[in-house]
Design brief:
The protein has about 170 residues and is α/β, with parallel strands linked by helices. It has six helices and seven strands; from the N terminus they run E-H-E-H-E-E-H-H-E-E-E-H-H. It has one domain: Rossmann fold.
């Protein structure tokens, strides 16, 4: 496993992280996002979609459960899933994500404890919203690369500009 931690000061930095991750991701990659309501899971996915040049507005798929955003630039489709309302593995299986996993980048919000079954290779991203008096005091992010796909990938180096507060 490879792990890196970042502090993101605001939503723009969270989108920039998504854009930076998009440059690392390839078809077949699974990203599992974990964090409280309002932590920035969808915001990160918006950055991923923007960098990937996908069609449609990337918004929380809470009520539709899953949305597909085809690339307008010949890249992989972004499959954006919200597992919050799913009760168990059977409901996740019913989405038939296996059929598109190899050709798409699949992002599952609220997927911890459910989506790991989709692939032994995945990025697990935990976003923790800092608590404080300010309206937006930033987020702590931990990114863990799991499986052979992520062995040898230096996430800290790939995300060094963000870690230095420079963004993209």
């Amino acid at each position: 496993m490879t792990t890196t931690q970042l502090h993101l000061p605001d939503a723009a930095a969270t989108r920039a992280l998504g854009a930076a991750l998009a440059e690392l991701l390839r078809p077949g990659d699974l990203v599992i996002l974990t964090g409280d309501l309002g932590a920035g899971k969808t915001t990160l996915t918006q950055g991923l979609g923007a960098e990937g040049g996908v069609r449609g507005q990337v918004a929380s798929p809470t009520f539709v459960i899953a949305r597909e955003h085809p690339s307008l630039s010949g890249g992989p489709t972004l499959v954006h899933v919200d597992a919050y309302r799913l009760g168990d593995l059977t409901e996740l299986d019913a989405l038939d994500l296996d059929s598109s996993l190899a050709d798409s980048i699949t992002v599952v919000e609220w997927g911890a404890g459910l989506a790991e079954q989709l692939s032994g290779d995945r990025l697990e991203v935990r976003i923790d919203r800092a608590r404080g008096d300010a309206a937006d005091v930033g987020r702590g992010v931990e990114i863990v690369g799991v499986g052979p796909r992520w062995q040898g990938v230096d996430l800290a180096a790939a995300l060094a500009d963000l870690a230095a507060g420079e963004g993209k």
